Known about the structure:
This protein is 61% helix and 3% strand. The chain has 30 helices and 7 strands. This is DUF4037 domain-containing protein. TPR repeats lie at residues 158-191. Keywords: Repeat, TPR repeat.
Amino acid sequence: MKxxxxxxxxxxxxxxxxxxxxxxxxxxxxVQRFLRGLDAIFxxxxxxxQAEPYLQKARTEAEHSHDDAGLLTVLNETMGFYRSQxxxxxxxxxxxxSLSIADHLHFQEIDPQAWATTLINAATGMRAAGRYEEAxxxxxxxxxxxxxVFSPTDRRLAALHNNMSMLYSETGRLNQAKRELEQALDLLxxxxxxxxxxxxxxxxxxxxxxxxxxxxxxxxxxxxQHAQKALTIYRTGHLEHSAHYASALAGYAQACxxxxxxxxxxxxxxxxxxxxxxxxxxxTDYYHTTAANLEAAKxxxxxxxxxxxxxxxxxxxxxxxESLKSQHSPKSSESQQSSEPHYxxxxxxxxxxxxxxxxxGLALSRAFWNDLGKPLLAGAYSAYQGRIAAGLVGYGSECFxxxxxxxxxxxxxxxxxxxxxxxxYDAIGKQLQADYDALSRDFTxxxxxxxxxxGHGSADSNALAASQSPLTPxxxxxxxxxxxxxxxxxxxxxxxxxxxxxxxxxxxxxSLDDATLATATNGQVFADPLGVFSKTRQGFKFMPxxxxxxxxSRRLGMMAQAGQYNLPRMLQRxxxxxxxLSIHEFVNATASLVFLINExxxxxxxxxxxxxxxxxxxxxxxxxxxxxxxxxxxxDILRLSSAACFxxxxxxxxxxxxxxxxxxxxxxxxxICSDVVDELLREGLTESHETFVEWxxxxxxxxxxxxxxxxxxx
Length: 714
């Protein structure tokens, strides 16, 4: 048994293991042998190198044996492996095939438990791929099936509630996410033979703590309680050297930080860091993020200390460290790390933000919403509170999360959006806008980086007053970027469509450029009790596959024309301006292609020019990103472009240095194109190794199913 969804260990691999459809003497696919071999690979920590070839071979054997049930077992395990590797695009056809086989085998009638388990795995894969609407439908089907066949204390129900919570959290429905986690916790505590030492109970407490932190600082006290319960369970069960323990420690530290218990935060972060190093090593994002949080907590603690007390408090801090370490038992032979990452560890690692004294626009928006927006709705608009979505999406650097201190010269102010259905807008829209406009924007930032809005807590005496920058004309009147909107109006202002075009409306999809789609799908949704806004927003992420393939073909065409064909010729002609424009077109086409290859539903779209490379760098640092090295190569091309195109003449260099720079750029263009072809081969989008990428276009377009002329090159 392995962890096959991102939740509690489930016997996915037990799905009809003894069924066999082969009656004509063909070789029997041995499911139990397959599972033992896969377990051995994970136990030996060789999954990254050996798991995929093993799974592919097993699939071939199951298909040759005509054993659909055995094939379904292999597909279930493949789903879990691909998900753990972040290969969500590769998982989509596996998910659909597993559902098709389960339906073909009539699992819904003959084995409802196997049907429910397959639905759960499929939904979790869809959720991980960012296909939230499909995931929610599958989860609802799974819940209907599971509640009818599983016992009320079956831990698979807890796994289902946990995963549904993650779906609601990722789509901004935090109250629903909290309810799902509470159901999971109640079920686990009832079913556990010893809840005081149950890792799944501990992990659920950790998830609750992290979710409460996401809901706002007012929940910090409750978050601390859940985090403390999780730590107690890990210690009772002697699980302190588990990778999941680091998530519990980091969650506890973050809750303490938000509650102002800085000394406890430092202690928690330091111990989390030691566990992360033991389990993952130092060269990981998880380690670096936690180290940054630790440093911020230390600085906040140091600033809080009066100078006359620093020596004494330092002594107390050392004593607290010794006390904390004394509570943790040494590693025993019984304490084993799971062979696959536990879903709680994944949630914890990704949910703990880096503490920073720089106030981002999204953080300012969320604080403004929590302090003044929620009370506004809970008061005069309580009858509509469960129907109004809130968040910050659309135009502005802060909506992409790329704003910094240089972004505050305009449009920097506390703001959020409220999105209403047409019916609700007609009833309360104008008055709600007036009440929103009347909210105080006055706030301060204390030395710990915490925001305090007027009337909601007092800042320290040393707090810095935060100023509000002037609004540009483009952010006022009918072009306003915040306030109250009809859902359809909001998206129409950005895209000219009130909702995403139909999946077969290819011409409309092709009319939407990358930057427009990025603007419509960026930002954060703080609350969406109805789910209508999130569903509309998500619709713009679901680019039809035929459109994606058509755009990949177009980008290949521009890369070949501008970078491989015209750039060398313009350089030979000494037409530096034309060469520079060729580089510009090549860079833009390549950057767009990287996002398209990595699937917009998972990574979003390439934003407008100002933030293209910020987005590219961020994408390149993600695990399992395809063509991750292209960003650095494009920046290298841009650095040398002046010397290559103009010989550095503007810097008094005359023509020297132009030839080596030009040769380096041309070689880098060819290397990028070669990397792209290698990726197309891995994706199964081509059979050709030709590196002049124009010739790859027919191979890519062969995968377009529609015969619509707008999707195909001439």
